[in-house]
Each structure stands twice: as C-alpha cells, then as structure tokens.
Write a structure and sequence with these properties.
CATH class of one domain: Alpha Beta
Helix content: 25-40%
Number of helices: 7
Order of helices and strands: EHHHEEEHEHEHHEEE
CATH topology of one domain: Trna Endonuclease, Chain: A, domain 1
Strand content: 15-25%
Shape: globular
Number of strands: 9
Bound molecules: zinc ion
CATH architecture of one domain: 3-Layer(aba) Sandwich
C-alpha cells in the first residue's frame, strides 16, 4: 500500500533540537527556516509550510489528503474566483534524491485533466535537468530547497515567524502515514533489528518508513 509519491525511500530524522536550525525564541537573531529545518520536518509538515507560503501570497488553498495514489497536494484558488483553481502544487519531501521528469509529467497530467494551466512543484531536494526543461515548457514553476528558502526570505519577519510556527509546532519530525493520515509510531524490528516507523493501523495498514539516526546518513 505504498504506491503513493511518498514512498518509504523518504527518510525521516529523529527529534533534533529546534534551536539548531530555527534560532531560539526570544533571541535577537532573526528566526527563519534554514536547510536543516526543511530537512528534519516530516513530509506532511513540509506540505503545510508550502501551503502557508501560498496563503501568504494571497491564494485560497485547498489541500488534498493523500490516497494510495499520492495525488496532487495543494490547489490554489484566487480569492476573486474561488470556484476555479488557478494552479496546483505538488510537494516532495525528498532527501538526497533529485526529482525527475516523471514526477513533473505526472503533475502536467493532473493540470491537463483539470484544465489548470499553471503548476508549482516544491521539494526539499533539487530537480534533474530534464525536469527543469519539461517544467519550463509546460507552465510549471519549480521550487527547489534553495528557491523555497529564498522565497521565504522575501517575506516579512511576521510571515517568516508564522511559517516557522507551522513548521515546528508539536512533533514535527514524526512522519504521517501516507495511507491513513495518522502519525506513525516508532517500532523495533523483531530479533533486535532496526528501528522503523510503523502505522498504528497495522496490520491493516503496512506503511513503514525508515528512522534516520540524527546526524547520520541514514
Ligand atoms: Zn497507515
């Protein structure tokens, strides 16, 4: 049941100290999301940050919960014509693997099916050259991790703080089940094996994700 875009290859970090990447509350230093910040938050939280980012840009957003097909994540609507989506946003919280043209083609397919001319693709990773070329030809705006952080940096201090709050509130590191939408729990493989994230819906839901040791390469 892991046919979604967020496959078990997406790795997650254990709870890191928020002060390592977000600055401390009450500190003089500006608090903002940095590379490490977008890296350690779980995939669903990453989507929430991207959604908040587009809300700040004046869109009404409707996020779509993930079914087994891992469909489009966020629909953008203009406030003047709320019934018509003006753009769709796909998010991939990937680490160490570039987003290829196949994923951009999938988004293009969804745009065509819904008569939406613009698309956005946001990732914590980067894009392959093929993906960049295809996106350019098809009205799709790509936001890789540097692009996202640059966009966030253009926002007011209050807006950046709001995004940081979305990112880091609660157990931001604990991944969400792609099938059920519930938080996964840490399990230990039988026979003294590795830790992994498992779904509380087991055995009905067999979603698992890799637990990445903090600071490790996974
Ligand atoms: Zn599940």
């Amino acid at each position: 049941m892991n046919a979604g875009g967020f496959s078990p290859t997406v790795k997650q970090c254990r709870a890191p100290a928020a002060s390592n990447f977000g600055g401390r509350r009450g500190n003089q230093q500006a608090r903002r999301l940095e590379h490490r910040g977008v890296d350690v938050i779980e995939w669903r939280r990453f989507e929430a940050v991207v959604e908040a980012l587009f809300q700040q840009a004046g869109f009404e957003t409707r996020s779509q919960s993930h079914g087994a097909d891992g469909g489009v994540d966020i629909w953008l609507h203009s406030k003047t014509v709320p019934d018509q989506a003006v753009s769709v946003v796909q998010c991939k919280h990937w680490q160490g693997k570039r987003v290829g043209v196949d994923k951009i083609r999938e988004l293009r397919g969804v745009m065509a099916a819904h008569g939406v001319k613009r698309g956005q693709f946001a990732t914590t990773s980067t894009f392959t050259p093929d993906a960049v070329a295809f996106a350019r030809e098809n009205g799709i705006n790509l936001l890789d991790v540097d692009g996202l952080l640059a966009l966030i940096a253009t926002r007011t201090a209050e807006q950046q703080q709001a995004l940081l709050d979305v990112a880091l509130e609660g157990d931001y590191w604990r991944p969400t089940c792609v099938n059920c939408g519930v938080k996964l729990v840490e399990r230990l493989a039988k026979g003294g094996g590795k830790r992994f994230w498992g779904c509380t819906g087991f055995p009905k839901c067999r979603t698992t994700m890799v637990v990445r040791a903090e600071g490790g390469s996974g």
